[in-house]
Amino acid sequence: MGMIIILVFLGVFAVVALLLIATGSGAVQQQKQVLATLDSALATESRETREQILNLRKREALSGIPWLNKKLLSAELGPQIQNLLHQADLKWTVGGLLSMCAASFLVPAVLVNMRTGSLLISCGVGLVTGSLPFAVVFFKRGKRFGSFQEGLPEALDLMVSALRAGHSLIAAMGLVSRECPDPVGCEFKACFEEQNFGLELKNALDNLITRVPLQDLRIVCTAIMIQKESGGNLAEVLDKTAHVIRERFRLRRQVMTHTAQGRLTGWILTLLPVALAFALYTVNPDMMSILWKREIGLKLMYTAIGMIIVGGLIIRKIVNMDV
Q1: Please, what's the b/e burial string for 181-217 (b: 16 or more CB within 10 A of its CB; e: otherwise)?
Q2: End-to-end alpha-carbon separation of the chain, Å?
Q3: Which regions in the chain score pLDDT beneath 50?
Q4: Are the CB atoms for 223 and 215 separated by under 8 Å?
Q5: Exposed (0-12), middle (13-18) or buried (19+): which is 177, by Cβ within 10 Å?
Q6: Please, how many CA atoms are within 13 Å of residue 190, restricted to the half-sphere of its CB?
Q7: How many other CB atoms sit within 10 Å of the CB of residue 105?
Q8: Cα dihedral 170, 172, 174, 176 in deg (nearest 10)
Q9: Measured between alpha carbons, how far is residue 243 from residues 139, 148, 156 in Å?
Q10: Is the four-CA dihedral 312, 313, 314, 315 of positive or negative sign?
């Protein structure tokens, strides 16, 4: 009976995958045709000019399946997930991410349910594995934001040098977009190109903060807008802002150094019971199966899981300090 369920699930999954590939191939061909048309229309321009042209083709498709794309566009959660994918610089679609989450939930949940026969345990394992695609998205997003935060002071120094040399603020942002590596360069390039297409400076900076919601970048944009309204030496303001950002970054690293032992203790205390339970189940499955085959075992297991979660959250609250 278990093999029949697995075979049916694999068959349905294969059919859905084939449908996704079939619906996505048409969109890929249409995209290639549009790109070929744009290349032929811009054939008379130089390569440097074509590289600076803003990509006006906004990606509104959240999924390759039409009915799923319509549902995601009507829901408020779809654009928010799409924004997370853009911030993580991942080329996934919202429908593809949700499909990966569903597959990561169903397969382990079915396997654990076949092994243990407990619906609650299988759902718990499925929820943990089903959240792994979102964990990858948040990890890539945090890593990209960290790279942006490290490169922001150097970008401000470059803007200060350009302003002191007589360039305008927009020209200084264009210099940053050309000279600084990604992700700083690509984000400032998008802001610079929005300016070229007639968007107001305040709206372009607001869009930049929306794409990269970092406190240091908010400080920079606020300093620029205050100088634009009240006047003053923008080069000196940005120079002081870069100094403040460097000091905040130095203080944050110092705090992370002092709290490294506490964070390591939290990870060990959280993961050690799970790893020990898996090792004991591998050595003696009959002894560990008492936890989900008897009522007292289930109560003890639920209590232990709750205490692990509460203890991990308390340690996280202690070691996380806002700088």
Answers
A1: eebbbebbbbbbbbbeeeeebeebbeebeebbeeebb
A2: 57
A3: 3-4, 7-8, 12, 15-28, 41-59
A4: no
A5: buried
A6: 18
A7: 21
A8: -140
A9: 28, 16, 10
A10: positive
* Residue the block writes with tokens 């309204």: 229
53-103 confidence digits (pLDDT tens): 444 444 455 656 665 666 666 666 777 888 888 888 888 888 888 888 889
The model's pTM: 0.69
CA distances from residue 4 to 11, 78, 117, 185, 266 in whole angstroms, order as listed: 10, 35, 16, 53, 42
DSSP reduced 3-state for 254:
helix
Residues in the chain: 323
Which contiguous run of DSSP H or E holds residue 44?
none
Taking the CB of residue 133, how many other CB atoms lie within 10 A of it? Answer: 20
Query: Which of 93, 67, 65, 99 lies closest to 79 in space, CA to CA?
Result: 93
Q: Write the CB contacts of 108 (distance below 8 Å, at least 6 apart in sequence).
A: 122, 125, 126, 129
Whether 172 and 159 have beta carbons less than 8 Å apart is answered as yes
pLDDT, mean over the chain:
78
CA separation for the pair 289, 6 (Å, rounded): 23
Q: At what angle do helices 77-87 and 66-74 cross, to 10 degrees?
A: 100
Alpha-carbon torsion angle 313, 316, 322, 323, nearest 10: -170
32 Cβ contact partners less than 8 Å away, ≥ 6 residues apart? none
Q: Taking a C-beta distance cutoff of 8 angstroms, is the pair 144, 87 a contact? A: yes
Can the peptide bond before residue 183 be classed as cis, meaning omega within 30 degrees of 0? Answer: yes
